[in-house]
Amino acid sequence: MRIRTISEAEVESVAGFAVDEPVSSITGDRFRQEFTERHFRPEWTWIAEDGEARIVARALWWGKSDSEHPVALDCLHVVASVEDRAALAAELLAAGHTAFERDGATKRPQYNISLANGWRERPDVAAAVAWRSEAARSAGLTESVERLRYEWTPEAGVPAPATRLVFQPDADEAFLDAFKRIAVGSLDVATLRELPVLGAGRQAREDLEFYLSCPGEREWWRLAYTPGGELAGMAIPSATPYNRNVGYLGVVPAMRGRGYTDEVLGEVTRLHAAHGAELITATTDTTNTPMAAAFERAGYRNTEIRLVFEAAAI
């Protein structure tokens, strides 16, 4: 078996590679289009060939058009005729990770699997997820979490203006402090895993830098205060290359349990709606039931599950 990246001339071969399972499907049209936009690239596209030079496995890493390194693995597939699909997939991932790290990447990209709600009830989907999960963990993506994906559209209505909080812009240092305070007692799985390893200061700095790197505008960011001037939380409306996104929101520990999450989420939704957004996406962990309930109260609709694998924080 030969494992390698592709050349520009092989785009059609990769685009035409059939995925015959109900997960990890990226259409040929999407691959071609996003390849021209540099979301997919030759050096991020890895294949395995058998002894007759037929493609039997494919891993497609995705990044922003201006990314130096890939952000996430969007598609992983091995044909059913391969005896040990998980083992070959793990080899493919390991080869990609080694190359990315050689090129200067300091963190392995996440692996995201988009799934329908109730996916465990479908044996074909559960089986497809099982060997991919084994491959991801074998390749060092040992942490996993399931996240609910939500969507808001104008038909859901725009939330009424906040009546109990005041929203104001501020400098990066003020947002760093808010990140550190909101992390305490958070229900977010990634925050809970990273905080003991990274420490509050480094985690806050990495969160800040991540949202600054997203396509959203820095001028959208707001801190939320009570009328008396106490910090209640923050809202970081954001965007992806495809649509507007809720980004990050949170309430500081001392202000939790007062319904402020609804007002902070409402501020994000109103800002995006005022700029003409036809779709706003959001995610939260399946275990974060208070946040899921807030999305549903605000008219966001749960559309799918996202299973995310990533390397442990170091």
From TrEMBL:
One of its GO terms (molecular function) is acyltransferase activity, transferring groups other than amino-acyl groups. InterPro entries: Acyl_CoA_acyltransferase (IPR016181), GNAT_dom (IPR000182). Gene3D superfamilies: 3.40.630.30. It comes from the Bacteria. Residues 177-314 form the N-acetyltransferase domain. Pfam families: Acetyltransf_1. This is GNAT family N-acetyltransferase. It comes from Streptomyces thermolilacinus SPC6. The lineage of its organism: Bacteria, Bacillati, Actinomycetota, Actinomycetes, Kitasatosporales.
